[in-house]
Structure prediction request, 325 residues.
Amino acid sequence: MTEFLMQPWPWWFSGILIGLTVPLLYFLAGKSFGISTSFQEVGAMCGPCNLDYLKNHKWRSGIWTLVFAVGIGIGGFIAVRFLSSSPVEFLPESFVSVSGAFRLLIGGLLVGFGTRYAGGCTSGHAITGIANLNWPSLVATIFFFVGGLAVTWGLGTLIFGGLSL
Amino acid sequence: MIDTTKEQTQAKTNEQTSDRFPGFVTISSVLLVGIYFGIVLTKSEVVRWQRVHDMFLFKEPFMYLIIGVGVVVAMISMLLIKKLGVKTIEGKPIKYEPKPYHTGVILGGMIFGAGWAITGACPGPIYAQIGAGAWMALFTLAGALAGMYLYAWIKPKLPH
Prediction:
């Protein structure tokens, strides 16, 4: 059992546990599973609040999204410190460079902008949305993959020239 | 004069009642589920750039299987919650607020997908990577916050 947990977890085990996050969060906290709202929360807390999108955000009740984000960070720490028999490679070595930082910054910009424009990310749209048979979430998920496939299969080289993705 | 002050106080009270900080139970539950989810994200390896890249290359079905099983388990859970009328531990009803359709679902969806492919991280994994000490992910987070501000700024001009 311990040996099983210390290895990378198989897809079926991981899938079940990820799916269970939705009812767990509903039952224990009464919250709908989603993560990208935490970006908006940061904006609403720190300003500039003359922008309607940030001004109209209920940041007091929304503070739970940041608590959730901190929890995910602690979970990541626990997983690599106490639950892994070998180190986990999050990002390839090539990202630890100036060009890597630049790529992460630009990619991150697209993640922040895109998730807020779409109104959700993999958790809010793909998992929670589809699980609740919300058809706009299915549309969103299809276009997550349209964007990701386009970049992976060529657009990346167009944007970044010589830097291979 | 007195009336204005009264109105202002009233307005302030209204604002506070419509937006309150969550209680202790909610905050501690959220933190616990967050830790759980962070562990699962990391141990399932969906936080690894290579896994996301291989998913978009159709090199392995791993990520598709995880997302697929996750959706099915979440769907069955929601059906059971509805069928059995499950309430939260604080006795409140559980209700999903549908996310509406608008042009951003398509355009924003594509933009996010592109960012996901470049950084190898959707929002959850960004936090897990940072917590696990993959410090380069701080650039991803900085970019994401910049992207959020950019959206907040140009939102009135975008098709919705």
